[in-house]
Amino acid sequence: MRHLMSPLDFSVDELNKLFDLANDIERNPAKYAHACDGKILATCFYEPSTRTRLSFESAMLRLGGKVLGFSDAASSSASKGESVSDTIRVISGYSDICAMRHPKEGAPMVAAEKSFIPVINAGDGGHHHPTQTLTDLLTIRSLKGSLDNITIGLCGDLKFGRTVHSLIHALVRYQNIKFVFISPVELKVPDYITEMLRTKNIPFEEVIRLEDVMPNLDMLYMTRVQKERFFNEEDYIRLKDFYILDKAKMDLAKEDMLVLHPLPRVNEISVELDDDPRAVYFKQARYGVYVRMALILTLLELAQ
Ligand code: NCD
Fold this sequence. Notes:
By secondary structure, the protein is of the alpha/beta class. It has helices spanning 12-27, 51-62, 84-92, 107-114, 130-144, 162-171, 191-199, 210-213, 233-239, 247-250, 281-299; strands at residues 40-45, 66-70, 97-102, 119-124, 150-155, 177-182, 204-207, 219-222, 258-260. The protein binds N-carbamoyl-L-aspartate.
């Protein structure tokens, strides 16, 4: 039995197969409409979510399966003190596969160790968010044709943003990737990540001003300042609007540069950019359903 905890749990070859399957699902949805008949997905969300939970539910429903779950720790027995290990043992009897989001780093891993069904990490604290990374990679591969030869800017909250941490780990396995980290000093990418990049000889630079690097980027991954992970409100208020991507800044970018964002957006991308063909974040959210459909089929061993 296989779980998905980190974006590195699948090899590059396995990811290619997964993305081929996701593209086939996009082209031929009818072919998969009953692939999960009789199967149940549990969504155990101890932290707020719109896209991740609903895209998992949509994915299972589009495969012909059913869903159950909770979207708030307060409405689950966690509020009575139940451990995730106990919860997952019980959920294992109610469903065939589980997507779990938790504010504590490592909680889905603890669950996976006790589980009788595949567990998918749907975001654990500031640590990893592997299914968002699968979504990001599928978006890039589908729209650019390849995951190699990319200069990617990651902008915003690089300290707490788990989607950023997962995406960097996943991209280092491709050829000729350059990272440009754009953040205020307080929200720099953690040292363990820059150390990993140095060890692997992967080029990266760290800058504060977005305007300075805009013309060099093939891809810009914008992120929200992660309010819920701040220790004090004042720091959040000071940093929340540090970057606002607007038309003037986009004028500096390449004509085919893509703007991605895991969403939710707060102020970091002006709505005036939503009609720019380079702004692909809503398309990206749609890819999230196809890739989760492919993932559910793969973990349930129903993919041909
Ligand atoms: C992200 C998350 O939860 O980490 N959202 C998502 O799953 N698409 C990003 C965020 O909340 O900023």
